[in-house]
Amino acid sequence: MKNPSLLILPGDGIGQEVMAEVRKVIQWFGENRDLNFDVSEDLVGGAAYDQHGTPLHDETMAKAQEVDAVLLGAVGGPKYDDLDFSVKPERGLLRLRKEMDLFSNLRPAQCFDALADFSSLKKELVSGLDIMIVRELTSGSYFGEPRGIFTEDNQRVGINTQRYTESEIDRVARSAFELARRRNNKVCSMEKANVMESGILWRDVVTEVHAEDYSDVELSHMYADAGAMQLVRAPKQFDVILTDNLFGDLLSDTAAMLTGSLGMLPSASLGSPMQNGRPKALYEPVHGSAPDIAGQNKANPSACILSFAMALRYSFDQGSEADRLEAAVEAILAKGIRTGDLMQADGGTAVSCTEMGDAIIAELNSSI
Ligand code: IPM
Ligand code: MG
């Protein structure tokens, strides 16, 4: 049987360094677990702009459409701040999301026991925290038309449009309910139905989908501002949070910070099933390109490695191998092995990005 295919797009800044550690992990699974991938590699973001004058070459886009999963590092950096909006590094990532139609973005916010002291909240509020934010990723105000900067009555007007169709809400709601069934069976949907028509429609459609097919799942609704408040007041009340593109952007950064370890958090962006039954998929760490530490071998590769664990689970049906990899990362933390981003509180040993990767490989070795 043909090996599943992976397209690696390291991108910019620390994307390069963390992806080098992921490659070691991929190789480990080939050598030790008989899980082999056909890996190809290409450019995205500023790296692609430097080479081709565009943050995502058409050929790279075409490759991404063909492979079984895409793994992305990070995009962006100060070098590209003054570029025209249309060729900014972020546009490369947004094009991948839109053209692959990756409508369901899974962002876990999980507090690792060993790191509970790093949270900005009291330890008892976050210890054991395990939330999944399902963010709609291909519509809403990120993509709605009309958009642009126009001139009206002799002044400029900036316009973005919050727009959702029923089917866009329906499909992402289904993915949240499906996921909840495999977790603690609770979904809290967040919008602003008190001020936005798109929010009223969102609440209606989520309620309908629930009544039709998922009445076994516990569903609640919250205004997104109250949701943000509850997220920092008592985060453990949530299991799955379902929300739109823009609110999801904000709420997922908030949730990530609660865990005290942005450098630890992975994400998956999933679309409709392809012919082989696998969903179109892109996996990436939640953190960005961290230009301040790029090129210094200081980055934490865990989030990107855990993104590969999500690929094992959601694209390749290898849940127990994903568990193995996640357990290895947790074990390293429990031993006090930390990259610089996690050194604030407990003064363990600071290791480099490559040392962290090696430690995870060593832990994997002892797992078999
Ligand atoms: C994210 C990021 C992106 C977004 C940027 C880089 C386009 O903030 O993935 O959350 O706004 O969606
Ligand atoms: Mg964001």
Number of strands: 14
Cα end-to-end separation? 25 Å
Q: List the strand order in the largest sheet.
A: 2-1-3-12-11-4-5-10-8-9
- Provide the CATH top-level class of the largest domain: Alpha Beta
**How would you name the CATH homologous superfamily of the largest domain?**
Isopropylmalate Dehydrogenase
| CATH third-tier fold name of the largest domain | Isopropylmalate Dehydrogenase
What composes the largest sheet?
10 strands, mixed
Fold and architecture overview:
It is built from twelve helices and 14 strands. It is an alpha/beta fold. The mean pLDDT is 95. β1 (5-11), α1 (14-33) and β2 (38-41) form a beta-alpha-beta unit. The longest helix is centred in the first third of the chain and has 20 residues, at 14-33. It has two domains: 1-110 and 261-368, Isopropylmalate Dehydrogenase, CATH 3.40.718.10; 130-258, Isopropylmalate Dehydrogenase. The protein has helices at residues 14-33, 46-52, 58-66, 89-99, 123-126, 166-181, 197-213, 224-233, 245-258, 302-314, 319-334, 353-366, and strands at 5-11, 38-41, 69-74, 104-110, 130-136, 144-152, 155-161, 186-191, 218-223, 240-243, 266-273, 279-285, 337-338, 349-350. It has a ten-stranded mixed β-sheet, with helices on both faces. Bound molecules: 3-isopropylmalic acid and magnesium ion.
